[in-house]
Amino acid sequence: MVEGEVVFANEPILRIEASLAEAQLVETALLNIVNYQTLIATKASRIKHIIPNESAAEFGTRRAQEMDAAIWGARAAIIGGFDSTSNVRAGKRFDIPVSGTHAHAMVQAYKDEYAAFHSYAKRHKDCVFLVDTYNTLKSGVPNAIRVAKELGDKINFIENDEGVLEDTIKITSNAEKVSTPGLKHVYRIIDRENGKAEGDYITLADENPQEEERIKMFHPIHTFVSKFVTNFDAKNLHQKVIDDGEIIYESPSVLEMQKYAFESLELLWDEYKRSLNPEEYPVDLSQK
């Protein structure tokens, strides 16, 4: 599946056709990459879903397991919907927006906080002041407010180490494993009348549900849960990346992946996306 696609449990995201030895050489690496980055992208998407009209920045570099994890975690957060990253290396490599604060060491390099804040604000836009270098309430906030009044159009917000925005007072059934043999495809079944997804439909590779007038979708575990679907489009979520050892897929930019993720989420009804007690999205098997 392409990056930015919305996927669900028990769906084959990657399909590798190779000898056993060749497939096992890349198995662990691919699982590591997919599991980590989908974890970050999913978390970012859920946060952005709660604050759709607010800006969200990724600041995870210092807490990532190592530098490559920080780079790819930043990329995954942007795909999931975040607006920027504090990791300038990731920003440069993937051409994504960067944002962040100055360092506490920068404040300490000046004779006082006012001089540090003023110098920083003169040279940057959308500034974020760290006000807890010395004393948050007695010196940090008053000096930040003083600079904000002098250079108000340059100030975004004031932050301490807990992420509190000082000036605006804004605080920041056990699934059963099912093994389905054979080469498979995953189709998203989309109702032509309302443009919403009826569910995902896992088929064998030689099946094409778009050729059917009616399909029966049933739960792979609770098979008594089923429905018939007509007047639909079947979107194949799999896309070939490597063919006969050659890369044939042209990867889009990270921001294009983010746009695709937003569009994919729009296909889902709100009850599948809500944070509290979401409905289980249908992932069904073909009858074959």
UniProtKB/TrEMBL annotation:
Pathway: Cofactor biosynthesis; NAD(+) biosynthesis; nicotinate D-ribonucleotide from nicotinate: step 1/1. GO terms for cellular component: cytosol. One of its GO terms (biological process) is NAD+ biosynthetic process via the salvage pathway. It comes from the Eukaryota. It is an enzyme of class 6 (ligase). Residues 184-288 form the Nicotinate phosphoribosyltransferase C-terminal domain. GO terms for molecular function: nicotinate phosphoribosyltransferase activity. Its EC number is 6.3.4.21. Keywords: Ligase, Phosphoprotein, Pyridine nucleotide biosynthesis. Coiled coil: none annotated. InterPro entries: Aldolase_TIM (IPR013785), N/Namide_PRibTrfase (IPR041525), NAPRTase_C (IPR041619), Nic_PRibTrfase-Fam (IPR007229), Nicotinate_pribotase-like_C (IPR036068). Residues 57-113 form the Nicotinate/nicotinamide phosphoribosyltransferase domain. It catalyses: 5-phospho-alpha-D-ribose 1-diphosphate + nicotinate + ATP + H2O = nicotinate beta-D-ribonucleotide + ADP + phosphate + diphosphate. The keyword Iron does not apply. Belongs to the NAPRTase family. This is nicotinate phosphoribosyltransferase.
